[in-house]
């Protein structure tokens, strides 16, 4: 919808609301900036949306439409800035964090988010951007760092937490092949910390992490401490190396089911 003329008094009111909210505005921003009740604020934001001055991101959340924007054009230049508004408490992680910390050169279009908010759909499209969202308990939000994107403050997993998250759910990193490459890059860094990897994995509390980490660290010639620490923490039960692949070959040492190609590669290298 193209922007219609906005009377001067409404332009001033909109400017007040935008100063209050920043990148994104809510009904509460309008009530605070204008001193009006929530029903009136909701109607006002809806009217400005109808006039083309705002675009609805989610129910009760709006973004200002630039004067130069064309009808139907994507108005949010940096989708990461949506994360604090939509998923706080939470953080950007997975493949996005791996790329941010130079653990990979691959670029992924989806935004990978870990959040303590209830998640109805793990895959969502917001303002034309796909989001892959995983719910985790609030107590397991740790190992993050602050990142500023313009005026928006958000959280991103640190390099060690990024690796642990990828091992916890390889689908958040584009599959186990890519996860293995990220782990190899991590272990080659000057600031890699195998002891912290173990500590983070213990806090996550998923035995599959130790199985995948031990197997991949051993395969990549990782530190002996890391391999032995994982072996000492193996839990009962067998898990798939990659939940996204059919795995039928059993590796007893790490209690893993491997895809056929992985098993063939291991036998070829023995």
User: What is the mean predicted local confidence, pLDDT?
Assistant: 88
Order of helices and strands: HEHHEEHEHEEEEEHHHHHEEEH
Strand proportion, as a percent range, falls in: 15-25%
Q: How far is the first residue's CA from the last residue's CA?
A: 64 Å
Helix count, DSSP H or I runs of 4 or more residues: 11
Return Rg in Å: 23 Å
How does the overall form come out from the CA principal axes?
Answer: elongated
State the share of residues found in helices, binned by percent. Answer: 40-55%
User: Number of folding domains?
Assistant: 2
Please state how the strands of the largest beta sheet are arranged side by side.
Answer: 4-5-7-6
Main structural class: alpha+beta
Strand element count: 12
Low-confidence stretches: none
């Amino acid at each position: 919808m193209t922007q219609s003329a906005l009377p001067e008094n409404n332009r001033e009111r909109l400017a007040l609301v935008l100063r209050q909210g920043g990148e994104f505005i809510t009904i509460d921003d309008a009530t605070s900036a204008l001193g009006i009740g929530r029903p009136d604020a909701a109607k006002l934001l809806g009217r400005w949306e109808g006039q083309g001055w705002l675009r609805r991101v989610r129910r009760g959340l709006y973004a200002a439409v630039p004067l130069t924007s064309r009808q139907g054009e994507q108005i949010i230049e940096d989708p990461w800035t949506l994360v604090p508004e939509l998923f706080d408490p939470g953080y950007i992680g997975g493949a996005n964090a791996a790329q941010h910390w130079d653990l990979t050169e691959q670029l992924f279009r989806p935004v990978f988010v870990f959040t303590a908010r209830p998640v109805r759909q793990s895959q969502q499209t917001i303002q034309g951007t796909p989001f892959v969202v995983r719910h985790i308990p609030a107590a397991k939000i740790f190992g993050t760092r602050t990142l500023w994107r313009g005026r928006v403050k958000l959280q991103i997993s640190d390099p060690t937490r990024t690796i642990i998250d990828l091992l916890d759910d390889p689908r958040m990193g584009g599959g186990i092949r890519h996860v293995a490459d990220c782990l190899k890059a991590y272990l080659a860094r000057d600031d890699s910390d195998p002891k912290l990897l173990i500590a983070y994995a213990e806090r996550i509390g998923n035995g599959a992490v130790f199985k995948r980490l031990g197997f991949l660290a051993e395969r990549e010639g990782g530190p002996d401490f890391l391999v032995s620490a994982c072996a000492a923490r193996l839990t009962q039960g067998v898990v798939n190396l990659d939940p996204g692949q059919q795995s039928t070959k059993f590796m007893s040492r790490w209690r893993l089911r491997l895809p056929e190609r992985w098993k063939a590669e291991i036998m070829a290298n023995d």
